[in-house]
């Protein structure tokens, strides 16, 4: 943190890379995935704007879907292994997160003092879990579909229905997760976290006030480090 | 963290990723039984289109066998909102000049210019039952099946009638009837379009060891069903004997239907296109006969490689970045009152 600006690092470069790569690929996967249904043909009509014509091509949207799927798989595995090695599990849901989310939301709505939080709020950890489950479901079912479509494999009729339905359920889940993620910024308090995903830094005062448990962790870490030095 | 611990963790994580990405054992075997694969020959040198009949006998037999499955929509039928149309063939159930939800095979009779003379060619048309059926693989709800014989069948109970299968089919074979099917019970104004219908190779008869209706009704033995490889060899033998051509062996990556003709298929296709032009025939259900049709999924094999590489590359990149950051240990400079 720089003392002059009163900012501190919340999201290092690696986190920002993962977040934005995943965000772009998920948004593109939703757009191109919906393009695998006869949606754009019907709703954009026979004369869509030139820049949207590509959406009506099953072929173009499918190839783009596979491209962004490869990017998302890379990012997901990178994210998992990077944090496993570094033993960083701050965003993994904890016992009591459901209750904690309820109390935090209640406090935000009623403008009451919030319970202290770690680096991530309980609902952020739950949102992460929803994204993780959706992505896992989509990647596993998608892998079967790719195996069948472009790897020259074939699935039994039952597997085909299960994988296709699973993929469709995953799509609905991730759309909900995305809407929920965006809806979080309806609360003014949450907007102070936004700069963290652009510059990596957030206000220290904000951290002290809202993420006091994380702040205390960092404090202890620094004290240990100082002891070592002396 | 020391180097040994780091390496231990990194290798465990990489091994886990490798197992996840290379395991193929979860993939269920295909429903297709190679020994039971059925193919068919449609010999254009034998088909005379039953010109002496009101309706070609194969078409009549197909209609009779399947009429209990023909859709009967409730009128009035809603348009596909926000568009101002819907596909309705229910007032044309007797139509036999094209594929419709009420006519799953038809005979396209055209005059072909070949070797300086005009020749009448009769081409029975229906689903080709492709090896790698794009309609089946790309159905967004996974409700197009392959029987153990290789017949491609649409599940009429769960089809939403989006007609993607028709767009994905190189010959635009499946045809749609609005006002029937599952979509009527969901959100009929906003999604779905009816049910798609096409030839199912009389799969119920095949299961009983019987022959499809079009074959048994053909008075000239122009249609023959049998073991796939036998049919393929026989089609090629007949084509060689007559100095002719086979259609369906290579097209769309291979199909279960082998047309045999003395006339090149380019010529037949030209005749079909010309006839459509002359009669201003733009309605669906009259397929082309262009040779060497490509399977759209075959252009994408590179994606398989990309998806196999992605997790391995992700794991490797993670190992490198984790190692670098741990070594550097970016401790945040926190202004903390101690």
TrEMBL record, chain A:
It is an enzyme of class 1 (oxidoreductase). Residues 10-200 form the Cytochrome b561 bacterial/Ni-hydrogenase domain. GO terms for molecular function: electron transfer activity; heme binding; oxidoreductase activity. InterPro entries: Cyt_b561_bac/Ni-Hgenase (IPR011577), Di-haem_cyt_TM (IPR016174), Hydrogenase_cytochrome (IPR051542). It comes from Salisediminibacterium beveridgei. This is Formate dehydrogenase-O, gamma subunit. The chain crosses the membrane at residues 20-40, 60-81, 126-147, 167-187. It is a multi-pass membrane protein. It is found in: Cell membrane. Pfam families: Ni_hydr_CYTB.
From TrEMBL, chain B:
InterPro entries: 4Fe4S_Fe-S-bd, FDH_Electron_Transfer_Unit, TAT_signal, TAT_signal_bac_arc. PROSITE patterns: 4FE4S_FER_2, TAT. Keywords: 4Fe-4S, Iron, Iron-sulfur, Membrane, Metal-binding, Oxidoreductase, Repeat, Transmembrane, Transmembrane helix. Its EC number is 1.2.1.2. It holds the Pfam family Fer4_11. It is found in: Cell envelope. One of its GO terms (cellular component) is cell envelope. Residues 118-149, 150-179 form the 4Fe-4S ferredoxin-type domain. GO terms for molecular function: 4 iron, 4 sulfur cluster binding; metal ion binding; oxidoreductase activity. The chain crosses the membrane at residues 296-320. It is an enzyme of class 1 (oxidoreductase). CDD domains: DMSOR_beta_like (cd16368). This is 4Fe-4S oxidoreductase.
């Amino acid at each position: 943190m720089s003392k002059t600006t009163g900012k501190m690092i919340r999201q290092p470069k690696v986190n920002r890379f993962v977040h934005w790569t995943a965000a772009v690929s998920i948004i593109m996967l939703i757009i191109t995935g919906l393009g695998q249904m006869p949606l754009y043909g019907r709703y954009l009509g026979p004369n869509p704007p030139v820049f949207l014509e590509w959406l009506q091509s099953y072929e173009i949207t499918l190839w783009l879907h596979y491209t962004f799927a490869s990017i998302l798989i890379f990012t997901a595995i990178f994210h998992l292994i990077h944090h496993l090695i570094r033993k960083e599990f701050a965003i993994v849901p904890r016992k009591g997160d459901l209750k904690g989310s309820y109390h935090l939301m209640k406090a935000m709505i009623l403008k009451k003092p919030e319970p202290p939080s770690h680096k991530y709020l309980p609902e952020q950890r739950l949102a992460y879990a929803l994204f993780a489950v959706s992505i896992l479901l989509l990647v596993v079912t998608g892998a079967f579909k790719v195996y069948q479509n472009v790897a020259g494999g074939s699935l039994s009729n039952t597997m085909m229905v299960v994988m296709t339905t699973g993929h469709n359920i995953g799509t609905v889940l991730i759309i909900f997760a995305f809407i929920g993620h965006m809806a979080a910024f309806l609360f003014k308090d949450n907007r102070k976290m936004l700069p963290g995903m652009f510059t990596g830094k957030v206000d220290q005062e904000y951290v002290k006030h809202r993420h006091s448990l994380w702040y205390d962790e960092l404090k202890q870490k620094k004290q240990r480090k100082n002891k070592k030095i002396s | 963290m020391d180097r040994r611990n780091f390496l231990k963790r990194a290798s465990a994580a990489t091994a886990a990723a490798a197992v996840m990405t290379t395991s193929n054992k979860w993939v269920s075997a295909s429903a297709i039984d190679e020994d039971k694969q059925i193919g068919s020959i449609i010999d254009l040198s034998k088909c005379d289109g039953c010109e002496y009949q009101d309706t070609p006998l194969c078409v009549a037999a197909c209609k009779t066998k399947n009429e209990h499955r023909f859709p009967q929509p409730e009128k009035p039928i809603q348009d596909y909102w926000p568009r101002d149309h819907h596909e309705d063939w229910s007032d044309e159930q007797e139509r036999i000049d094209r594929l419709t939800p009420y006519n799953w095979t038809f005979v396209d009779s055209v005059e072909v210019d070949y070797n300086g003379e005009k020749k009448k060619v009769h081409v029975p048309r229906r689903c080709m039952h492709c090896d790698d059926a794009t309609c089946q693989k790309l159905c967004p709800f996974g409700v197009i099946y392959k029987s153990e014989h290789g017949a491609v069948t649409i599940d009429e109970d769960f089809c939403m009638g989006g007609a993607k299968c028709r767009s994905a089919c190189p010959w635009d074979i499946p045809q749609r009837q609005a006002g029937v099917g599952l979509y009527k019970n969901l959100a009929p104004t906003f999604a779905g379009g009816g049910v798609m219908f096409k030839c199912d190779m009389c799969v119920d008869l095949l299961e009983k060891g019987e022959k499809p209706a079009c074959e048994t009704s053909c008075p000239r033995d122009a249609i023959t069903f049998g073991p796939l490889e036998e049919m393929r060899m026989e089609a090629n033998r007949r084509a060689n004997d007559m100095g002719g051509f086979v259609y369906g062996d290579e097209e769309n990556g291979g199909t279960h239907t082998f047309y045999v003709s003395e006339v090149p298929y380019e010529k037949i296709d030209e005749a079909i296109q010309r006839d459509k032009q002359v009669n201003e025939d733009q309605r669906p259900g009259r397929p082309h006969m262009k040779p060497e049709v490509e399977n759209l999924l075959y252009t994408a094999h590179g994606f398989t490689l990309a998806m196999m590489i992605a997790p391995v590359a992700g794991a490797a990149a993670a190992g490198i970045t984790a190692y670098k950051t741990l070594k550097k240990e970016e401790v945040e400079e926190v202004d903390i009152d101690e």
